[in-house]
Amino acid sequence: MLNFKEIAQITRGTLVQWKDHYPLQHLVTDSRKVVNANSSLFFAIKGEFHDGHQYLPELYAQGVRQFIVEDADHIMDLSAYPEANILLVSNSIDALQCVAGHHRRQFTLPVIGITGSNGKTIVKEWLAQLLSVTERVVKSPRSYNSQIGVPLSVWQINESHTIGVFEAGISQPDEMQKLATVVQPSIGIFTNLGSAHDEGFESQEQKLEEKLKLFEEVKCLVYCKDQVEVHQAVQEHKLPHFNWSKSHQQADVQIEILPARQQKTPIQFQYLRKKYGLTLPFTDEASLENALHCLTVLLYLGVEPDQLVVRFGRLVPVAMRLERKEAINGCYVIDDTYNNDVAGLRIALDVLAHQSRHGRKTLILSDLLEAGVEEEALYRQVAQEVSSRGVDRVIGIGDIISRHQELFPAGSEFYLGTDSFLGQLRPETFRQETILVKGARVFEFEKIVAALQQQVHGTVLEVNLDALVHNLNYYRSKVPASTKIMVMVKAFAYGAGSYEIANLLQFHRVDYLAVAYADEGIALREHGITLPIMVMNPSPDSFLKMEQFNLEPEIYSPDLLHRFLDYFPENSAKTPLIHLKLDTGMHRLGFDVAELEEALEVLAQVPHVRVQSVFSHLAGADEALYNDFSRSQMQQFTQMAARVEEVLGYKVIKHILNSAGIVRFGQEAAFDMVRLGIGLYGVESSGTEQSGLLTVGRLKTTVSQVKQIKAGDTVGYSRKGIAETAKQTATIAIGYADGYDRRFSNGIGEVLINGHRAPIIGNVCMDMCMVDVTGLDVRAGDEVVVFGEGLPLTELATRIGTIPYELLTNVSTRVKRVFYNE
Ligand SMILES: *Cc1c(COP(=O)(O)O)cnc(C)c1O
């Protein structure tokens, strides 16, 4: 193992303070993820939105003793870290890469480096599955492919591994060079060249050139020869290669795809003049391409073609989503049932640890499939990871984990297999707790998830939490770095589900939340949300409750101010915080100029009440047409806010911009804080920068029945759906009671079934509606997308003359919300 002084040499940093040799096993870049403080080395990274240096004191208090910093200002006072080793470098990420690169050089194993626009993670996971039959594989956890993720992945390599598989992703020029020095691949895979991350590059060629930098030193690059641009570039750079093709006779591996049957695709491939057959357990293009990359790599590695049949037959789809959902008896399940190695477990445990919903946390864990670690040491480590994350109860399933049960806390339960657990399952023993279900594929833990999940009808709103964080960061990038962010989570977080969203926002360190009513705020507090919360429509009878739950009211009129003060006379114990709403032209709620003077006169008399912020709301931020009006509102706001500070004699937080306002005026009028709403959920309401956002919500349901109807028949109530010709219809399980607007009736609305648009036929019913699927291959049970990728909310809203806000918030609470990370 490296020691701190060696790291100082490798990174050419300045040893600011050296106290002692400490064990060094874990590289940590996220202050929230320290598990073994005494053997961790923390890299303080200055990011666009966070600064790791801020957490140095907290980490020191937790027992971390080894730090790499890039900003000397934060270590001026060394007496705060009497026992720490501290290294100052010019760039902490460079230092991290340098350390990982050095670690990589200590090993001679073959390393496969994967890049390309799509499919990296799947190809990596599949290769790991396919190779693990004979190799001890080390791989990137999930999609750890960034400037930070790659070095952390490579750091996992140890003596026992026989092959490494790592993915590398870039979004800007110059990034790949750095990742290449970390991964040092001996074999490369270029998956494909798509349009992802185009914005960071001048041209498609530049992006390709940049990606190829990963492969400058490889012994062999695997790619598909049918991708013309990639093939040309490989030729130009004279990269040693081994390729496959569906159309070229001269490829190293020639592929012929045969017609699919029963969800499987038979293929034939020719290699070294001999022909072989194989069946791939998928039919979609993307999966086939990914599988063919894997096939080619295995052939290059010398795996006997005859062996491939068995290995590919066992290939399973990679469900990379880590889903969270409601379950029996008020429980909440985190479903991560696709693989189970230590790195993946660690990520899932972090997610569990950051759930504030319930105090009690249970882990259902299968045997681990981890290569190259001695069994007892492995489970000892697992047990330690588990207890350091505050897990209250462990249920171990599998004969290996059962053999090591003495390593786990008393009260843990063990079962030899999934079925024996299910046979003895007593649902009443799960109550008001968060349950992480983490198991390798072979254990079929999806059965456990099904048993624990609430039985609800098949209409689901899926919420992509990664997309949500992307959108949050997009809006952050539109305002100066010092600007605070308040996120509006009113109306059940615009229909997305408030606890989960609030919890994620708390994790990502937004500054404030806002809700419409006190009850919404109280519910957040009861689920462990500690961020400051503003309540926009406080009713006087909720003032005391609000104080009890630390909620801060918006005060919008002299009358409301007086009522508030009645509850909090001068001698009250706490300093109540309030927010003043100013009316600068919206004419909804707020003080006008005269009322503000009246309020300030009162406030000047009650110094025990503190005005935390003053704010106003733009009436027309979503339309350029109203820019002049918006600016006049901002001007008036500036004057009124200045008056507040003048009379009160202290600074208050000032804010006026909503999502559309951030896009239009983020640089000129962010003031101290902005209020982000709809944009977080993926709708850019100014209509100018939609492409910067990702779709967050996907409302989906299923086909209940398919019918053939004759010309002249009618469909649904009032016989409104008239079939002029013979038609095929599908009845789908969503109606106006689920929030599917009745205005979508009679062809106004469309849904997506198997990638095709199908119009509504007849009137929307309460729990169902019918769609026209004439000419489409549709069966009962097929998935139906009501809105989401491919069927944008803005389009649907326009069709019925409303706005995306209404469609989102209308999704009824009986529709189950499922949250996931990719
Ligand atoms: C809802 C709301 C917002 C957020 O508006 P979006 O258009 O969703 O960004 C901001 N401020 C106030 C006062 C609000 O009520």
Summarize the SSE layout with pairings:
Elements: H1 4-11, E1 14-17, E2 26-28, E3 40-43, H2 56-62, E4 66-69, E5 85-88, H3 92-105, E6 111-115, H4 120-131, E7 137-139, H5 149-154, E8 163-167, H6 175-183, E9 187-190, H7 204-212, E10 220-224, H8 228-236, E11 241-245, E12 253-257, E13 265-271, E14 274-280, H9 285-300, H10 305-313, E15 322-326, E16 332-336, H11 342-353, E17 360-366, H12 375-388, E18 393-397, H13 399-403, E19 413-415, H14 418-423, E20 433-438, H15 446-452, E21 460-464, H16 465-476, E22 484-488, H17 490-494, H18 498-507, E23 512-515, H19 518-526, E24 533-535, H20 543-548, E25 551-555, H21 558-567, E26 577-581, H22 593-605, E27 610-615, H23 627-648, E28 653-655, H24 659-665, E29 673-676, E30 697-709, E31 714-715, E32 721-722, E33 727-732, E34 750-753, E35 756-761, E36 769-772, E37 783-787, H25 793-799, H26 804-810, E38 816-821
Parallel strand pairs: 2-3, 3-4, 4-5, 6-8, 6-9, 7-8, 9-10, 10-11, 11-12, 16-20, 17-18, 17-20, 18-19, 21-38, 22-23, 22-29, 23-24, 24-25, 25-26, 26-27, 27-28
Antiparallel strand pairs: 1-5, 12-13, 13-14, 15-16, 15-38, 21-30, 30-33, 30-37, 31-32, 33-36, 34-35, 34-37, 35-36
This protein binds pyridoxal-5'-phosphate.
Function: Catalyzes the interconversion of L-alanine and D-alanine. May also act on other amino acids.
InterPro entries: Ala_racemase, Ala_racemase/Decarboxylase_C, Ala_racemase_C, Ala_racemase_N, Mur-like_cat_sf, Mur_ligase_C, Mur_ligase_C_dom_sf, Mur_ligase_cen
Protein name: Alanine racemase
